[in-house]
Amino acid sequence: MLLAISIFFILGGTLQVSANPPMQQPQVKGLITDIDTGSPLQNVTIWVKGTAKGTKTAEDGTYAMELPEGSKTLIISCSGYLTLQVDIESRPEINIALTKDTSPESSSAWGLQ
Q1: Facing residues of 23 across strands?
Q2: Predicted confidence pLDDT, tens digits, the chain (113 residues)
Q3: What is the Cα Rg of the chain in Å?
Q4: Contact between residue 106 and residue 77 where contact means Cβ atoms under 8 Å apart
Q5: Is the sign of the CA dihedral 65, 70, 73, 75 positive or negative?
Q6: Which of 8, 49, 57, 107 could be disulfide-bonded to 44 (CB atoms 3.0-4.6 Å)?
Q7: What's the whole-model pTM score?
Q8: CB atoms within 10 A of CB 113
């Protein structure tokens, strides 16, 4: 054992012990669904309010993203659904059910009547 330790130091080995591991950037993940059917929604845009940081949901309605320091609110937007603002509150997982936008303004904006 003493021989192994001696060889380690002779070969220039160093041992570093850190009491503070590097900080990981906070992340958030979740699932976006339709409130009426429970079906997962794909291509929903999720971004951090006040930044250009964002992502879209996958085919199965899931999303995951790193959060810039100081992130407080997510904005969730999808065509045909009401846009939501959700407080992050240090939650690592935020699942959201979106409600369809049935207002006349939204249907006329898309050329529907």
Answers
A1: none
A2: 544 444 444 445 555 555 554 556 699 999 999 999 999 999 999 999 999 999 999 999 999 999 999 999 999 999 999 999 999 999 999 999 999 999 877 554 444 43
A3: 23
A4: no
A5: negative
A6: 57
A7: 0.71
A8: 6
